[in-house]
Hints:
By secondary structure, this protein is of the alpha/beta class.
Amino acid sequence: MPDKDYIKMLRKPTAENPLRILVSACLVGVRCGVDGSNYGKYPSVLKLLDYDNVRLIQFCPEDFSFGTPREVCDIYGGDGFDVIAGKAKVLTTTGKDWTDKMITASNKMLQIAKDNNIELAIMMDVSAACGNHVIYDGNRFNVNKKYQIGMGVCGAQLSLAGYKIISWREYESLEILYTVIDPSHKIDSDAKDFNQHEWYINYFNKK
Ligand code: SF4
């Protein structure tokens, strides 16, 4: 869940001391998706490339552990926290157990976060690795596929270490971030975080 108060309190970065943000590599155009694509364009994150007072540190945990292209995987029996706790598994659609190597990838991502002293992470949502708000509950290709509120394995690993994460579609939070980076930025008052979207409210029956 985005923490808007945390984002508001981020320091004012400068070109000499830029804001250090860890991003899922696919969000900035790296072709590290399961099919060798970058899953399209994410203007809400690409916008950050325009600022000289932001440093983006990119990483793809699944490429690190499994290469690209690769099979699709999802979490079975819980979320990323449960995987780390040994209570849930990461399985590919053909049934390969990727649990251990996914945890290895999450440890690598955590190390990168520490080495770069990151101040925020912006990650792809829904992924079994980078998910940070909503993920699939089991196989995404099931006719009766289900979603759950929760984090992927890397999201959970970063969160356990105290790092704040938002996804590319937390548009209200990102608007706040843009004003931290650029005080002249005019906030789009229509921008909503994912949990304010109609689909989310209806699906999870939350207001
Ligand atoms: S969501 Fe994460 S694991 Fe998946 S392609 Fe993007 S960076 Fe890699």
